[in-house]
Amino acid sequence: MSRIELDNLAHQYVPGGDYALQPMQHVWEDGGAYALLGPSGCGKTTLLNIISGLLQPSQGRVLFGEQDVTRLAPEQRNIGQVFQFPVIYDTMSVFDNLAFPLRNRKLGEAYVARRVTQIAGMLGLEGVLKRRAKNLTADAKQKISLGRGLVREDVAAVLFDEPLTVIDPHLKWQLRRKLREVHEQLNLTLVYVTHDQTEALTFADKVVVMLAGQVLQVGTPQALFERPAHTFVGYFIGSPGMNFFDCQLEGSEAVIDGERVALEPAMAEAARNAGGRLQLGIRPGLIRPAAADEPALNIKVDKVEDLGDYALVSGHLGQQPVHVRLEASGAIGADGLRVVFPTQNALLYADDRLVGGGE
Ligand code: ATP
Asked: Are the CB atoms for 191 and 19 separated by under 8 Å?
């Protein structure tokens, strides 16, 4: 296993053209589980292909540990790979499929049997080891692919490119949990590409959120939720995403279409220094109903959805759209909803960047 360093890395498919990846500098820790998350076209596959060696970057270096692998072909890089669609040998047994990467490296049969049994057990394939892969379901075939990617202990990293695309929706959840367990047991460095936030947040220790060729934030799921470094991260993570309101500063207050929110004084001061377009960000679940005698913000309610254990209110604060997540819809009055934005939950963004910085 290795740490992965992306040193001043960038990529243009066409010299002098647009950057598919903007220049970046990152270190991903040895044994970490990283998810690359972002919308279609943000550069996830480009980055994964550069790490695997399928693509040579137009700028910068990739290091596995101390070794510069930038110019090495995939087979020289010592990595495991799992693709969107199963890559297996149909005519071989499940056992032989899983054993293949180990036998290729001339490892002894006793070790092969032990390791294949271990990996098969983790993925729930122990009952089909003797069966030919050909007649198995698409789910089982993809599990074999996952197993083949994970079976070698000596790899620098295992790279996954949207590996659960072909998996039945109700099995996805199970397999995500499995991968998480496998990661905890095997201690491999894993890099997992997905555009699905649930997949990224349940799988990864650290999520790398990308947009338009840029890494906007690398953080734990909790950090992405609590302190999004960029408005896109706040909007993209969470369902619904974070609320953002254009605002002005007056002292330590943000003014949103005439409504006032008290801010942490240090944050207000930093925002004043940062300048640019100023937005206040707050998660729908961190807005609370106001007590009767409390100064409050007035939300015009457009819609209330009862989602079982909570109600989701869609409305407007001044002219600006807002979502509020309430434990009960009883707080909504005839003329709207009176709420408080608790000071510690209100973040400020200057030109889309979190004032005071993220993780
Ligand atoms: P998706 O989730 O749709 O696979 P992605 O996040 O993996 O998207 P990439 O496929 O890495 O994104 O694409 C990043 C950018 O590079 C896009 O603007 C895309 O059009 C461009 N691109 C990708 N492959 C090529 C190529 N072979 N030649 C030129 N441009 C490319």
From this structure: no
